[in-house]
Design brief:
Blueprint (H helix, E strand, L loop, with lengths): L8 E4 L3 E7 L2 H6 L6 E4 L7 H7 L3 E5 L1 H11 L6 E8 L2 H13 L2 E7 L5 E8 L2 E7 L8 H5 L1 H9 L2 E5 L7 H13 L3 E5 L3 H6 L1 H7 L5 E5 H10 L7 H10 L10 E6 L2 E7 L7 E5 L15 H14 L4 H15 L15
Parallel strand pairs: 1-5, 1-9, 2-7, 3-8, 5-6, 9-10, 10-11, 11-12
Antiparallel strand pairs: 2-4, 7-8, 12-13, 13-14
This protein binds 6N-dimethyladenosine.
Amino acid sequence: MAVPQGYPLLCLENPLLDIQARGDDALLEKYGLKANDAILAEDKHMDIYEDLIARDAKLIPGGAAQNTARGAQYMLPEQSVVYIGCIGKDKYGEILKKTCEKAGVHTEYRVDEAQPTGKCGVVITGHNRSMCTHLAAANEYKIEHLKQPEIWSLVEKAQVYYVGGYHLTVCVPAIIALGEEAAAKNKTFMLSISAPFIAQFFKDQLDSVLPYTDYTFCNETEAIAYSEGHQWGTEDITEIAKKLAQLPKKNTQRPRVAIVTQGTLPTIVAIGSATGSVEVKEFKVREISKEAINDTNGAGDAFAGGFCAGIVGGKSLDDSIDMGQWLASKSIQELGPSYPFPKQTY
Ligand code: 26A
């Protein structure tokens, strides 16, 4: 057997296939969906995938952190990124594996024998997207898989960890294991809050992993959901970013950086310090003409991917933010969470 190589960036989350189509208010209403949201599918949502396929849906590789992994690898030298999660033994799982291979991302999937590969129904209405996820196999990820010697050796060789907050619904112990490894060896641990429902309904799980984060990512709606859930009494994004940066931290050798994206508005970055003071920086996004936008699904994942590439490549915080904004601007010109092919260079 080939000895696994080390990859500097290790990403963990839910591998999903996106089933994405244009919809309308009637479709949103039929399933009780908001125009712009991400939820876990309940029984009443299970027909939506067929409805989307009937609307000529595209099958696009998704899963938020898997998009980030592909994005980071897009901007890094070969063999920089490994992605971990659980798929089923089926055609959709094969599509995900092949797409990652093509993108140069090494995958170490756990393959569940019983459940199908997870899928995410994406309803596009104008510039909004509503996502409804049936995790299926993705929900079967277990800490035992991460602790297998050949997988754990990749964890030990990695220098930077990126976890999608959506995984808080699946396997908190795996996230904590990565956080502990990072804190013990002064490596970098990053986490995205991923969706308002994570801040609202998985609050305790989220709070159990935030102390490990060196970089916490969220968008404006997730920031506000977090603030509301913690009765911070503010919807001011800069204030929330500052408070996120000041939350308790396990590894005190690194400051916490909280990064809040807000669509076309500037990205807010709050940098904590050992003394408790916080520095705030704002970064304008790269403007794209309205006509050039294809769809914004996955823009945040792309931003995180470009940012991770910067950090893994030893770039400064400011440069890493710019790399994130560059990759996000490229991704929104593609269909779904994808990147231009042939490859463009930063
Ligand atoms: C557990 N949930 C709800 C999810 C997701 C998810 N990825 C992991 N877990 N719900 C939506 N996504 C992904 O988000 C991307 C856009 O940011 C979709 O698969 C889509 O590719």
